[in-house]
Amino acid sequence: MSRDDHSHQREPVDAGYNSRILQMLPSSCARWLCCAFLLLSQLALGADWRTPAAQLAEKLSAATGPGVIALDITNRSSISAADVEQVRHLLVSDLAASGVRVWQPDQAAAIATVTLSENLQSYVWVAQIQQGSAEPSLAMVSLDRPASSAASQNSPLMVLRATTLMSAGAAPVSEYVAAAPAELRDDVEEVLPPIDPLSRIGDADGAVFLQAGRSDSIVPESALQALADAAPDGTRVTWYDAEHDLNDSANRDQLAWLSERLGIDGPPVPGVATGP
To answer: How many angstroms separate the CA atoms of 107 and 133, rounded?
Structure first.
């Protein structure tokens, strides 16, 4: 008894099934999908740098006037390398519209060094403009950071924070309270603690470098030592055979320490007070 084997073949799958599904959607849904796609595409592009770039270009062109400048950009913020290139392109374009052409440094009348930095709330762009032997000038613009943005690891993040304090080496707040008139003691006790260096230095979150002169005629050595004792563990304390305004050795140590902490590298300048 024989048996016939029948092979069953599937029909070819139509590679265009997506297009048929789209054709089945109402036209309003198709438009909605297109709009959503365009919106997501715009979000993927990141922040819009056109406004701050135009503002900075306007300040640069006002400082230099029409002509040729060199443009150097350093990124100390969390934005990507692609964003930095976009910022450069926008600056060059906006400067050209104002009659300022970006070219090589050896053929430029001015050099604009732009640093892209940020704090917890804003992107901050600072430009130093050097024209010949004149004193350099500064221009700065800022842009609010998106609430959802988080610092990435694209580049070292530099955050600046300022705190107002009384002069370092001041007496403890309790001595000011005791010396104040009776009717003002409550006010003095309320106002001074937030700006008292002896109280606040222990809150320092990061590296601390204290410099003091052993011949200081303004702040007693005991007061300076009290501040050093109140500093957090790991604080670097250096004493100099100098007056209150210290000396060249202290200046060099300070710049070297700041350069190391901020990741700034550059050749020393012979002949100046802080040079070799």
So the answer is: 16
In the chain, the number of structural domains is 2
pLDDT tens, 212-224? Answer: 999 998 888 888 8
DSSP 214: T
Q: What average pLDDT score do residues 241-253 get? A: 91
Q: How many CA atoms lie within 13 A of 224 on its CB side?
A: 19
CA 217 remoteness from chain centre: 37
DSSP string, 174-210: HHHHHHS-GGGHHHHHHHSGGG-HHHHGGG--S--EE
Domain of 205, CATH number, reads 3.40.50.1820
The pLDDT, as a whole number, for residue 47 is 73
Which pTM was predicted? 0.45
Residue 251 phi, psi dihedral angles, 5° rounding? -60, -45
**Backbone torsions φ then ψ of 150, nearest 5 degrees:** -130, 145
